[in-house]
Amino acid sequence: MYSPTPEDWHETNRARWDERVPIHAASEFYDLDAFRAGKDALRDFELAEVGDVTGRSLLHLQCHIGLDTLSWARHGASHVVGLDFSEPAVETARSLAADLGLSQERAAFVAADVYDAAEAVPDRSYDVVYTGSGALCWLPDIERWAETAASLVAPGGFLYVAEFHPLTDSLDDETGSRVVHDYFVRDPWVDTTPGTYADLDAVTVHNRSVEWVHPVGEVVTALAKAGLRIEFLHEHDASLFPRYGALDRHEDGYYRFPADRPRIPLMYSVKASRPA
């Protein structure tokens, strides 16, 4: 029998993210000064897999403070829209867009729940719908997400997802070598860890969060069921942060297991298109 989803999951998660926005904006992790000066927030494999976005419209679901969204604009997207359920995050993203001299016609940000995106965003469809790392774990219903995201993909366009591999949530935090959690778990995971990944020592009050694990097969099946054609599913042996103590940081900025350790997927990416 599954544990029920807490009724306050949405308000709980939003309070947590609202509190962390100013911490993230001031952190070395996000380094907004470097971003304003031209630093790219996108990963090399994302740029290669998405391809040239010049002249294309792009919607970024669950955009947080908008660095990835604005980076796509820098790479030539004609019109980018970022959506997030945190008002402070959206305000920070709008401020960053202004700092970069981008008009609202080039870069717009909307405060709304991802499940309400079809009604909240300014256009009915986009050439590219993008979701970055660490987004899907905050959603209880992946089929509803897939239906919403798919509905916003223009004919001839595609959805691109880059995510942390759910297998990583099944392994022990110290070494990443032992299976200690059920990969197929459907119960919500309630955490109360203070601080934030961008500043582990930050003093925080809203520390409760509710998250879910979505197996890769569940995500891909939901996208196919929503009417999109799966172009590829790629698994990557690198992570964006030291998920386990055993990971080493490489010159390219990614974290990987030592060469004498068997590799496992730490991230994955999916491209799913809508026929023209």
Detailed description of the structure:
The structure is a single chain. With 276 residues, the protein is an alpha/beta fold. The chain has one domain: Vaccinia Virus protein VP39 (Rossmann fold, 3-Layer(aba) Sandwich), CATH 3.40.50.150. Helices cover 27% and strands 21% of the residues. It has eight helices and eleven strands. The strands form three sheets. The chain has a seven-stranded mixed β-sheet, with helices on both faces. The protein has a two-stranded antiparallel ribbon with strand order 6-7. Strands 9-10 form a two-stranded antiparallel ribbon. Strand 2, helix 5 and strand 3 form a beta-alpha-beta unit. Helix 1 runs parallel beside helix 5 and helix 7 crosses helix 8. The longest helix is centred in the N-terminal third of the chain and has 17 residues. The chain is globular. The chain starts with 8 loop residues before the first helix and ends with a strand. The model has no long low-confidence stretch (mean pLDDT 96).
Write a brief caption for the model.
This protein has 8 helices and 11 strands. By secondary structure, it is of the alpha/beta class.
Strand order of the largest sheet: 3-2-1-4-5-11-8
The description of the largest β-sheet is: 7 strands, mixed
Topology order in helix (H) and strand (E) letters: HHHEHEHEHEHEEEHEEEE
**Global outline:** globular
Radius of gyration: 18 Å
> Structural class from helices and strands?
alpha/beta
- Give the beta-strand count: 11
Low-confidence spans: none
> In which range does the helix fraction lie?
25-40%
Could you tell me the mean pLDDT?
96
Q: What's the number of domains? A: 1
Distance between the termini: 43 Å
Q: Approximately what portion of the residues adopt beta-strand conformation? A: 15-25%
**Annotation field: number of helices:** 8
Organism: Streptomyces litmocidini
Keywords: Methyltransferase, Transferase
GO biological process, one term: methylation
Domain Methyltransferase: 59-157
